[in-house]
Amino acid sequence: MRKTLLVFILFLTASAIYADDPPKVTIQDFKEEFNPEVKVSGGVLIGFQLTGSIPKPDLNQLYIARPASLMHVNLSLTSMDGKYKAEMVLDFGESKSTWVEVSIPSERKEELKNYSTNELVAYAYTEIVDERSKRKRTFHKIYPTSWGSPKQPDEFVGRFYVISGIGLPKYTLNKKSYKCAATDADVNTAFNKFCVLNDSFSPGDNLVFLKTGVQRKFLVWRPE
What we know:
Blueprint: H1 2-19, E1 26-34, E2 46-50, E3 62-65, E4 72-79, E5 84-91, E6 99-102, H2 109-112, E7 120-129, E8 138-143, E9 145-147, E10 158-162, E11 170-173, E12 176-179, E13 181-182, E14 193-196, E15 204-211, E16 215-222
Parallel strand pairs: 8-16
Antiparallel strand pairs: 1-5, 2-10, 3-6, 3-9, 4-5, 4-7, 7-8, 10-14, 11-12, 11-15, 13-14, 15-16
């Protein structure tokens, strides 16, 4: 009897430990806007996301990967038609997971429900100072995102999304160039081209040059 009681107590203790919720991501400086009358894109835009497990964006199921030591990441969400834009800073707290699920506190869920995962584009990044630049210019280090858990986590399957006035924008990785293609969206004010990711990305940081009329450099981080 005493042995049974001891086993039961240990079971309850273990259950309590594993029932604890994982540390939640804290969202800071959240702001969003929806403008149905937008006519032109504002600024140079970019998106970067892997193919996820759900066909429609679920604002409670946005996944972001980053090194466990990185505590803060900037995140933007932009609809391809340019009507919706959200910006925020994510605080990962004590989470040590590589892929972390984020819940976006949007008040525009009704307007966003008809977008596909290719039409509501996520972009997670940090800013890095270019020490080789005399003016100390910054560039972005990009982290993978996906709607739902990444569909093929062992492969780097996804897209860059860009706005470009030239016919064939491209990106260069490991001195090899990959062409971009036009989106098939009816309205593509924010993004009019996409570039399919090549699986030549190595674990860790990858230097990428996007040529969309002007050339910009990025670091893209791939999980192990």
